[in-house]
Design brief:
This protein is mainly alpha-helical. The chain has helices spanning about 1-15, 35-40, 45-55, 70-75, 75-95, 105-140, 145-170, 170-185, 210-230, 240-260, 265-295, 305-330, 335-340.
Length: about 350
Amino acid sequence: MLRDMTRATTAAIAASGEISPAAAPADAEAIALPDAANMRRMSAAHLLVTLAALPLRQWPSAPLHPESDARARAFDPEAIHQLRIATRRLRALIDVFSPWLKPRWYRRIKAELCWLGHTMGPARDADVLATTTLPALRTEHPDIDWPAIDAHVAKLRSDARTLAAEALASERQQALHALLLEAFGIGADGHANRQAAKALRRPSRTPGKRPRALAKHARNVLRARYIALFPDCRQLAMLDTEQLHALRVKVKRARYSAEALTPWLRKAIRTPYQDTLHTAQTLLGQLNDAVVAQRALEDMEIPATQRDTLNGRLDTIIVNATSRAAHVLCHLPDAHTLERGMRKD
């Protein structure tokens, strides 16, 4: 029933025309995982480097001449999106498997991934604003001074793309990519060799190298990510936009952790749990796009009445997205159900 509900909710979101491309396609962030049974038999170190190799294969190539305005304009926004996905997944992995990483490497990788993710953010936000949020508002309110808005957004988008292109082609990004390859022992063929991974701790300094130790750790992580969702997910109507953004981050962490630890969730609980988290992330992403649009409107030179009109419509989108997210998150499994759905080994 929950599975049908979340799928129906996702379909309703897509039909509404209010969803952002950053979160809409269910397959846009799909990732091919090894067989679950094989993953359970792997050591933590082996599983970590195997999973890390997957997003690193999606790492986009850098533009050759970031200083060129023409190159910046031609910069593919999808490369930004793929890079943000890769950085989020890698951050989730090192977070989940931190006991098996050398602390110095963990801190360095986390800091650099945070830098790159934050650098890519404005470009992605500007693309969503220009291609999804504002076009929907234009259809409903054609009498607004759209030429002034278009000019402002075009400048905003160009500046954000230029910064993203410069970051992607920077020595710091190239050094980060090389660091990740070295950290996880990724070879030229894109496959991982844990014997060559520099970031892994010695087995004597980890919780254990046997799969049973990893299973225990997996259950602890899944519980912690689940508990972190409460009580916010039960009282969304009381949260402001900053708190809702923080909840979205928690939802993403829970989703990516559950994805990385798929072998330790039984299918009966895994599918509805991940579907619910995905749908909630989509709705909260829609809400965040509306908040980004409101902030952008503050700097636009348009009449105050027009700004108020657009802000009013964006407020409606925020309220609707909050209501839908609350409905979805209320159908998360209870703690007992989740516990029974975890594998013990």
